[in-house]
Structures are given as structure tokens and as C-alpha cells.
Amino acid sequence: MDPTPRVVFVRLFGDMGSTDPAARNARLRRQSSILDSVLDKVRHLHGDLGHRDQRKIDEYVDSVREIERRIQNAEADGRALPLVDSPAGIPVDYDEHARLMFDMQALAFQTDSTRVITFQIGREQSGATYPQIGVSDSHHPISHHGGDPQKIASLQRINAYHVSLLGYFLDKLAATDDGDGSVLDNVAILYGSAISEGNRHDSRNLPLLLAGGAGGRLAGGRHLRYPRRTQRLTNLQLTLLNLLGVPAEKFGDSTGERLGELAGVARATTG
Questions:
Q1: What does pTM read for this prediction?
Q2: Which ranges of the chain would DSSP assign to H, the alpha helix?
Q3: pLDDT in tens, 192-221
């Protein structure tokens, strides 16, 4: 995952075919916005569309401009207050950084610029702290809590904070129109961790959250539990691959077993 909003933005929505700083600066001198190169075409297209499609075009243009404005503000802050190990364009505030990255992911799905995204919310071994939620220690040492109630409470606050950021993303997807439903109705979001208990580095019995409708192929609103040591995360990932139109017989160390056939993760579709 690239943590720099500017680089992600350019990869998704274009620039001059290069993410080189010199090329970007040359483009910025000639254009006030990345959209300037296509606005004439957008205006022409706008007149040929129905009201609903015009609204989607307007939403797209407004979203891209808003994200670019926030990136430019972050870069300006970086020049005024240079930070060690913080490249220009990364917001100083982690909450703003995470939400900006989520906004770009939502826009990428909305515009079908990509259909696969991997994003790491947690700071894990970075050494960064969470002052915005009152946690002064970094994530990794807190996860090795040794049964200390104070550290466990801090770890719970971090987990709740991460889930709140995910909630922001899901709410945004749910509020974005996508034909006969929302973007959330047509995607599958798998949220979780490779470790269930950091204190012991235990990777068994992982808590996972699966959101989205996958175009009507996933039924939500349920809590599924599997007996310990009876299923693998890669079996769930294999199930999702096939549900999302990627035929596969095996993924990683999966056994080839598809959870949808076992526990009703997938719901039947008609048509």
C-alpha cells in the first residue's frame, strides 16, 4: 500500500503518465487542476446525458476536485511545517489521512477505476501513537499487554477507532448511487487481521467482518462461528474470489472448500 495520497490519486485518475515529481510540477504549472485537461469533454458529454447520469458526472467531478483540494492543502502544510519521515502530501493528522485514503477508494469504486483494493488501517509496528483517542503508546507494544488491564483498555480503544474508520468508509459506499443500488451493494469488503491475540501471536480463531452485497451474492446481518481449527481464512478468500467472478480452485493454503456451500455465506440469485 502506498501511503501517499498524491501518488494514489495520480495512479487512479491520471496525470502526465508519470508520478515523477518533475513531471507533476510541470503539469501543475500548466493546469490548475488535474481535471482541466478533460473538462471540455465532460461539459460536452453532460449535455447529451439524462438527468440521473448528469448528476453522477457532477458528483464525480465534485469528488475529484474536493480530494485534490485536500491533497494540495496537505502538501502546503508539509512545506510550511516539514516533518521528519513524512513525505509532502501526507496529512499530519492520521484521522484526516485515513479518511482521505478511504474517500479515494470510494471514488475509485464509484468510477470503476479499479475493482480490487488492499488497505492497511493499523499502524502496527510503525511506532506511531494515537493521541486523538488518548493512547500515548504505539500499537505493537500495547498488543503484547501481558494481561495488564490498562494496556488491554488501550488496545480496545485502538480497535474501536479502527472500526470507526471502517464505518466511515462503509457509510460513504452506502451513500453512493450505483445503478439499481449503492456501491456497497455491489462490492465485498473483508476486514480483519492476521493475528487474533497479539499477546501470544495467535493466528487461530480470527475475528473477521465481511461487508457489502457483492451484487446480491452475499447475505449479511449474521454472525457465523466455526469450531476451532475447522476452517481457514484462505477458504473464505477462495469463496470470495469465486463469488466475485474470479474462478479458482485453490488460494494460498486453502483446502479448496468454499464456505458459501457450507454455511450459506452466499445467497442465491435469480435471473
A1: 0.73
A2: 5-13, 21-30, 39-46, 51-80, 94-110, 139-143, 149-174, 233-243, 259-263
A3: 988 888 888 888 888 999 999 998 888 888
